[in-house]
Amino acid sequence: MLKLIRARLIQLIVVLFVLSIVIFVLMKLAPGDPVASLLRIDEMGATQAQEEALREELGLNDPVYVQYLDWLSNVIQLDFGNSLLKNKPVLEEIMDRLPATLELAIGGMIVMILIAVPVGFISARYPNRLPDHLGRFFSLIGASIPVFWIGLLLIYFIAFKLNLVPTMGRGELKNLLLPSITLGLSLAAIHARLLRSGMLESLSSEYIRAARARGLSERRIYTRYAFRAALIPVLTVFGMSFGSLIAGSVVVETLFSWPGLGSMAVEAIFQRDYPLVQGYLLLMGACIIIVNLVVDLVYGLIDPRIRYGKGETG
């Protein structure tokens, strides 16, 4: 287990280093000039001298590799620089928005679990029967409809037609309802289908037939053995789809005016606040890698047959 953790931490460092290079290069290649956006040259009549002074202050006149090394040395010290437009530390801005995004992510995961587990379990319990057909229909529709379209449908029918919950902003629990359902529905469709397939595959294995031969009840076989074994591929896909959860939160936060990291990133991109965009992308990349590490460690807890010891890989 310790060997796995050490290997994943080394992988984390290498991936983050490569990611930092990619992010920095993409920001340099992005269209537009952050200095022009900051000074609003066309609107406020800023002079060329003011533009050059600000460019020198920000270090934009240095060679690109010098700019990258300066930025990287600061990042190692958890100094992501200052937001160009808000004039506050990038890390502080991210931490101010992080609670809202965590609320939305947790709400989306709760909705996903509440829908995916029963739908996948019941579909596997009654294969090729009405519950299974309904579950597969839900999975097909949920996986086919884009996240923003689900959000628009929920806003139209639940907020405008029925006037049950507000559509924008963060505050009370009811404000979280529609964004969480929007984010969780598309993920639930994928994971329900995967859980069904995993359970049906495990039910056809030798150890399940042996359990039935020993006289174990069908309820115990489904809940203790088949369901538990099916969680392995589900967790794998969840770790891989965590990026989709973050990407989906960008769309959902923008759609529902949710003041989280996603809406912050969209604003920073349109305003060409490159230090804020760079800090956001790097931290999100670190979060995705850490989530996959946690998923690897959980494998051994769910399935005792999986052990990360000498000569084994995770």
Characterization of this structure:
It contains 13 helices and no strands. It is mainly α and 314 residues long. The longest helix has 38 residues, at 218-255. The protein starts with a helix and ends in a 12-residue tail after the last helix. The model is unreliable at 310-314 (pLDDT under 50). GO terms for molecular function: nickel cation transmembrane transporter activity. It comes from Paenibacillus urinalis. This is Nickel import system permease protein NikB. Residues 98-299 form the ABC transmembrane type-1 domain. InterPro entries: BPD_transp_1_N, MetI-like, MetI-like_sf, Opp2B.
Keywords:
314 residues; mainly alpha; 13 helices; 77% helix; flat; disordered C terminus; membrane; transport
How many helices does DSSP assign? Answer: 13
Q: Helix and strand succession?
A: HHHHHHHHHHHHH
Q: Report the biggest beta sheet as strand number plus sense, adding barrel if it closes.
A: none
Oligomerization category of the chains in this entry: single chain
